[in-house]
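Figure S7 source data.
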Amino acid sequence: MLSVVTVGLLLSLAPLFVLCVPPIWTQPEQVHLSYPGFPGSMEITWTTFNETDESVVEYGLWGGQVFEFTAKGNTTLFVDGGSEKRKMYIHRVTLNDLRPAAAYVYHCGSKAGWSDVFAFTALNKSSSWSPRFAIYGDMGNENPQSLARLQKDTQVGMYDAILHVGDFAYDMDEDNGRIGDEFMRQIESIAAYVPYMTCPGNHESAYNFSNYKNRFSMPGRTEGLWYSWNVGSAHIISLSTEIYFFLDYGLDLIFKQYDWLKKDLEEANRPENRAERPWIITMGHRPMYCSDNDKDDCTTFQSYVRLGRNDTNPPAPGLEDLLYLHGVDLELWAHEHTYERLWPVYGYKVFNGSVDEPYVNPRAPVHIITGSAGCREKHDPFVPNPRDWSAFRSTDYGYTRMQVSNSTHLYLEQVSDDQFGKVIDSIWVVKEKHGFSSWF
Ligand SMILES: *[C@@H]1O[C@H](CO)[C@@H](O)[C@H](O)[C@H]1NC(C)=O
Ligand SMILES: *[C@@H]1O[C@H](CO)[C@@H](O)[C@H](O)[C@H]1NC(C)=O
Ligand SMILES: *[C@@H]1O[C@H](CO)[C@@H](O)[C@H](O)[C@H]1NC(C)=O
Ligand SMILES: *[C@@H]1O[C@H](CO)[C@@H](O)[C@H](O)[C@H]1NC(C)=O
Ligand SMILES: *[C@@H]1O[C@H](CO)[C@@H](O)[C@H](O)[C@H]1NC(C)=O
Ligand SMILES: *[C@@H]1O[C@H](CO)[C@@H](O)[C@H](O)[C@H]1NC(C)=O
Ligand SMILES: *[C@@H]1O[C@H](CO)[C@@H](O)[C@H](O)[C@H]1NC(C)=O
Ligand SMILES: [Fe+2]
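Tokens for the predicted 2-acetamido-2-deoxy-beta-D-glucopyranose complex:
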């Protein structure tokens, strides 16, 4: 007969025996979507820890024949920069010729293992369509307070895409990339259903942003550092503000992005393009303006992102003039763990449409700072006396919703998770004209 002590000992060792059963290293995980920028396309990205013979997505129309179609893609080996040099196989498959606005079900993997079944709706390619977004930055592995609400919102179909404005996981490279794995598993519950579009933040800087570049699949062959895409009546530009701060990775990146951005804005402003997609929206991690009570760059007049740097050789241009001169309508930022809405602003000056209706035909871009999704660094405080460009502030955890209704109307609202989903701020931006000339 086993003594109580022996039984106790065996029971206490049980977890060790369980751990000895190895996971299936070819099992797909961390499934997420992104929009490659071509009407009728969707990209699916996932991870395995062993190589598989192929990377396959099987999919079909919702309610149609299950897995009627098959698409194949590519695998890249990602070796994390940490001491263990952990290997991850990142699988990418692009689906093409999807029926616009149709719902699909899919799974991904290979003969050596398949994911759960997920669903998405292909983006409607009409420029008169009104896409809906969730927007936030600074969501971590620990304390991702808004995640549960975002999961439900997404799964009931409230969003057509999500914009994550930098700072993921805190930090993806930690524990030899395991924190990145865990974060990507956490967001699968939203990112496997709608395109999850990103830009890099300072928390991604390890090993030259390698976890960011390898784990996401953004359009434009720039490893997700800067790119643009069209949806509804909007042209959305994603930027790296981090190139202004991590000069060791290459000062030339500031100039490369600037030149690319200038060309992209010129193209978007060609009369036929601006007529079809009048809204130009940018997203970048570190804001040009903010009212937070910390030592961040945006608290100073001379923010690098706004005015550039003169301590580099050659001096590096900032972004405020370039965006203003090309009539950018809306600029989305994060990094500050708060929500802040600004009156239309350029050059530290407020340019309301009118005093009664500041956002009706605003005479400068509108800025929103939304970095309060929740992370281990908690909240940031505000200064007691904000500048006159600051219109609304909240330290609640939460996120922003946006709908680009049509060529003249764009709606923004702020959801407070602390207040159980209450909408604590909302505006309509109304523009009868777009472009540089609309400022006057
Ligand atoms: C599979 O992956 C595991 C974990 O990364 C690794 O230890 C093992 O060597 C790999 N096996 C093969 C055959 O690649
Ligand atoms: C796979 O890689 C090849 C070569 O780089 C490329 O031509 C092809 O388009 C890729 N396929 C997918 C589905 O991304
Ligand atoms: C796409 O959006 C347009 C504009 O809202 C709408 O008229 C059209 O019916 C939509 N297409 C589909 C397939 O739902
Ligand atoms: C960092 O990454 C960028 C973009 O991939 C690349 O152009 C640059 O050369 C890299 N810098 C270093 C120091 O490796
Ligand atoms: C260079 O930038 C600093 C702040 O970053 C500013 O104080 C200084 O006036 C600038 N110098 C010139 C010559 O523009
Ligand atoms: C902009 O509009 C707001 C709201 O009406 C007002 O409080 C603020 O003073 C205006 N700012 C300027 C500079 O006109
Ligand atoms: C644009 O959308 C707004 C808000 O939904 C609506 O009031 C307006 O009539 C629409 N304009 C056109 C031209 O459809
Ligand atoms: Fe940040």
